[in-house]
Amino acid sequence: MSKLITSVLLLFFSVQIFASSILIPMDADSQKNHLKAYGITYWVLAKQQKVQWLLNYRGGSFLLPDGESIRKECQIRGVSFEIISDGQANGILDEISSPSVNQDAVILEKAPRIAVYSPKDKQPWDDAVTMALTYAEIPYTTIYDEEVLDDKLALYDWLHLHHEDFTGQYGKFYGAYRATPWYIEGKKNSEKLAKKLGFDKVSEEKRAVALKIRNYVIGGGFMFAMCSATDSFDIALAADGIDIVEPMFDGDASDPNYQASLDYGKTFAFTDFVLERSPLKYEFSSIDMTNKRGNVPKESDYFSLMEFSAKWDPVPTMLCQNHTSLVKGFMGQTTAFTRSEIKPTVLVLGENKINEEARYIHGIKGKGFFTFYGGHDPEDYQHRVGDPKTELELHPTSPGYRLILNNVLFPAARKKKQKT
């Protein structure tokens, strides 16, 4: 009997000695495919296994449970990983927990259900978030106005707003593209959809969609928006009940002196902005910095990520995880945000100090969160209508795309109270 007990104990301690974890490093030197690493992490979460996100440790690495299937999946997807003993893993966690280092471990518990707000018809441009999700092999559902107005947002944890115009001005493409087939067809389809949904004008229908999305966030949803979806969303909220649309868009005149009627208290991120009245200008308002970037040459167009306390402010720290603190700039219809028009309650996560512009901002609305990211495509400096899409196989370590995928995993985190 004593020999049997000894054998069992030896077996137990042998298992403990050789038990291991998988570390997916996210620093610049060790990881060959940062973007697909997020997909691996999501894949593990989808199998009801927990993951630890090691904030500020080797670029924001992931600590996964070990398993042959996970090892094989990393190999298939080309993701760099390291097998470490449980003793080594505990050593890392002890090191991270020290009050003297700006690091922390956040538990990711559940794969978020993801929705991408995008029109059903093909657009003459590509969406960076859709490309990032597809490349990282993270599943998502495409929804649009019908689903939003039918209260289907409650089915999802995370919502991305496609390159979109919530003001009903068809992206302000009128000046340059009003005679092109895609613009004419898109306008016709939008008007048809608005009437089907019971609205007289596209601007009214889009505002109703924006209000539904607002309620989704207030109720606890996570919203991520890029490019023109950022400022046009806030403009639609501020202009609730006001006609800011000129006749070539909706067939009737705008309200006189509509600028003075805007209610900035209804917006998420921006305040005191001035709308661009001219339908010929490819611009919505003074929020955007695209036309104020004369002193930002392409060669030196970078923005810096802010540093937050991982232990006290895990939310902004998660959203800023990267293998570099400097990210290449990139343009879009809405490239960056005017600092003076950002509400004081909103955190600036990334900025171009030279031009006094914010590129990446985050805030809380009710029980939910929102993140706005300026620019159209992090690996295409000046993406134009009709340009070919970016092939992410050529940019597997893109810092700009990493910021998108930080937001995708963010809802999976076990929340700690934010101090900022």
TrEMBL record:
Residues 1-19 form the signal peptide. The keyword Signal applies. Keywords: Signal. The keyword Signal applies. This is Asparagine synthetase B.
